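forwarding from the other thread:

> can someone predict this with beta-D-glucopyranose?

sure thing
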Amino acid sequence: MSKKWYAAKSPEVSEREKSNYTLARKAAAEGFVLLENNGVLPLPACKIALYGMGARKTIKGGTGSGAVNERYSVPIEKGLENGGYTVTSKSWLDDYDFEYDEKYHAWEAEIAKKTAGMAPHEIFAAAKGDPFRFPAGRLVNDEDVRASDTDTAIYVIARQAGESHDRRLEPGDWYLTDVERENLLKLAVAYTKTVLVINVGGPIELSILDEVDGIDAVVFYGQGGMEGGNAFADVLSGKTDFSGRLTSTWALKYEDYPNASTYGHVNGDLDNESYLEGIYVGYRYFDSYAVKPRYPFGYGLSYTKFSLACSDFALQGTRVQAKVQVMNTGATNVGRQVVQLYLSCPVGRLEKEKKRLVAFAKTRELVPKASEELVLEFDMTSAASYDEAVLAWVLEKGAYLLQMGVDAANTEIVAALEMDETVTCEQCVACCAPKQRVDELPLPLPTAYTSLPEGLRRLTIDTKSFSPVTHDYGEPRVVESKREKTLLDTLAPQEMAELLCGGGVLKQGQHNVTGAGGKTTIDLANKGIGNIVLSDGPAGLNIINEITMDENGFERAVNIPEKYKAYAAAAKNMIGEGGEPAYRYATAWPVHLVLAQSWNTELLHQVGEAVGREMLEFGITIWLAPGMNINRNPLCGRNFEYFSEDPLLSGKMAAAITKGVQSHQGVGVSLKHFACNNQEDNRTQCSSNINERALREIYLKGFQIAVTESQPWTVMSSYNKINHIYTANNYDLCTKLLRCEWNFGGLVMTDWGGRADPVLCAGAGNDLVMPGNDEVRQQIAAAVSSGTIDDVTLRRSAARVLHIVLKSDIYQQ
Ligand code: BGC
């Protein structure tokens, strides 16, 4: 490995940054969703009375590993001004700043008190679980309204969330605070046009919309990354159409979610989470149980109107192709539409959800009266259901109804695909099944369709076209390259064991990127094996952006971000001067949820490519992203770090961003958190208790798609247990499913400092324990000496770690 300076020497904005900032702006604009609009939008440049906690302090992303230390971030106020609007409510905003600062400093002092005497990593962990809650600001008064001198108001509600902590059913989180309610009621009356902007990583309670008429438009901003404010002005003004569509269902009220009363802290049981809704997650539930949502999955308004016509179908073996003609039927605005294809599967021995997404596509920008033919394709095997009785993916006989639409609640049946016998698509073995079945909610209504449109097109699928897949569940083999074999042959078992444990605290000579999440071991440097660096994700690269580097490559942080100041005191050795200044300005992208709302896999590929370029510049080998857990309940503190409630959409988005990153040589991703990490409170001890069908069809499906379509370099197991077994100790999950069924050839690592037994990881197929420390190292070493970790297991996991280390860019110099 040759030494290279993995940082910019100049603080100037680089060409790479400029092009990434442009892409971040485009991505945010494509990901915002217009929820309501009575015609007030688009809004040409004008005076705006801007209020609300997210107006000037716009939240660009979450806390914890989902954070990024960007060069700048454009809040909504700034974005509006850049876009030619004049903000005329400065005195309210200045008062807000004052209150914010006061409360922030009080919170900071609280954290300092709570963490006094702790080691730096403990401080970070403690502070993660206690994010700062933004104050609501003061009531808007008549003087504010008069001074604002405009008929247009925008009110921005913001909520901060992040790892280690679930959202709460409280005012200031799920519910509006009294101040927010009163302010919105006031603005609705005082201004002719009122726009509500939701700067939150997921839904909030919106019953206020049913109580008052004067809220004219609602925008789901989510968390739009560093260019969010500019992107907001782009969509507000109509420079860009709103082409984002929801990737999760927004209920009318919290109680409408199937697991509302049992989720996490709500029922007080943080140790066991019962996945009692089975496969009925998100729209699958709302649809099948006939519960009306506020905004369905896939929903979003545009500035124009579109017509959809299914022009053609084709069936080739098991592949289905539908051609959909989309036309912009509006008169003035350019727009893009997202077309969604759903399938309603016949109900046989197995219950089925009313419909499930099987394909989607987005048009290019269409000018009025222009049209585009979209080709949507899927394989019938992707619509198979998992039959626990025969341990196989099956397609039951009957009619499969193809539905086309623009959201899950607005679809039209366009064809019937008929099968005259039941086929087995894939024979499996039991994996992660609970000892005792989870009692699932009964279906109140039949989900099968009884009346079909007249003249419906029917195609018959020849069941002989299916060739059932079987798997070899024998111990997976690792094929070592000549170089890997030679290196491994020189290692004694105890040395090989080093590779199974992360590099832990910084050591002399270790390749380091300040602020990055972790490193592999440097203790084998004398054997020619250096270390690589792994960095969070998923909103960008989470590292320190200003450092100094001395002649030995030792780095120090110069610019400790504001949000770390509260607990950076103990990390003093990281801070300071000495050496030459160096810079690593990473892009803060919109959070994954917003990226996914673009429904644009090409865009996610571009974002991935851009992240990959930054990794090469900064000397980072693995991006600890994409995050791809399922949005199961809106209170999960990390939903914004994930794509959707739907496994197909999650899988496709993860595959696209992975392919983008890995289109560069020498860098890779880590799909996380594998799997069922849907609760943040007590996340390291909670057991997700779930039946195998729901596990496979909903929570694993997205990972399966991403693994098989994009071959990620690594996968990160989650903190939680599945049916009482820690995922990192779970052979069924990390070996049988991941490697035997999906042919994953990469490395599996633990999440940071989880509670799974490090000694049982390698045997289960979880090769690397992160971030590594002396205790874990000693435990693994002792297990190798005693034979608890046998030679074959040791060599296999060591080979997988070495393989990734050698694939790294830092070895390609
Ligand atoms: C998070 C992971 C993250 C890791 C490293 C953990 O607390 O759960 O998502 O990648 O830290 O920072």
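The longest strand covers residues 306-316. thats all i got for now
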